[in-house]
Amino acid sequence: MIKGIYEAHLPVSNLITSIEFYKKLDLEIAYQKEKLAFFWIEKGRSWLGLWETDMVNTPYHPSLRHIAFQIDKDNMQDIKEWLKERNIDVSTNFGFPPEKQPLVLPNNPQAHAAIYFKDPDGNSIELISPLRLDYEEEFKMMTLEEWYKFK
Questions:
Q1: Same domain, 101 and 37
Q2: Contact 68, 114 (CB under 8 A)
Q3: 65 burial class (0-12, 13-18, 19+ CB within 10 angstroms)?
């Protein structure tokens, strides 16, 4: 019955500034009006809504003001350079500074590679890729470079 997530939403303080930021991520505007813009994540399958509001001051928590975009595992090695070309700084997450990312999340029995940054309002943006699914093996969080040596 359920096929996936169609939409997610984030609060922003200035819609025009946020539109420019999300365009740098190569997302296409699907719909826009005065205080709302939708960007296609995957055209016809999923989109992101940005709402200009004073609610952007709600303190960050992983359950609020966070979105993760899936990318191909093969792109994870070059993702820092891709972000740098767009003047987007990687942020420290889980104690891993930018130079130690992408990192590998030990969500046993899954493992995911991820890298983190923030939009102009401090919303947490994650680029993530599955490395393996349904494989029981305990390990600690590590850099992607360490993962390839570990595997």
A1: no
A2: yes
A3: buried
